[in-house]
What does this fold into?
Amino acid sequence: MKKVNIHEAKTQLSKLVEEASRGESFVIAKAGKPVAKVTALSAPTGAQMRRLGFMAGQISVPKDFDQMGRDEIERIFGGGV
It folds into this structure.
């Protein structure tokens, strides 16, 4: 595994991150001692990703949604303020 010092990591960060994303992990060292390992994350891609709105048009919310169960809620917690 490649080992780079902090100065080199700062000056070549974009290149090093690109390499890491391709699976070429590396270690950042300070004064010759390893302090951090940079490796690719296994992020979901394509069909694995969860999308907002993926059920659009498949679910309907009743117009009186905010009033549903009102009587029971008032009975349990007491009505009025």
Remarks:
- Strands lie at 2-5, 26-30, 33-38.
- The chain has three helices and three strands.
- The chain has a mean pLDDT of 87.
- Residues 4 and 28 are 5 Å apart (CA to CA).
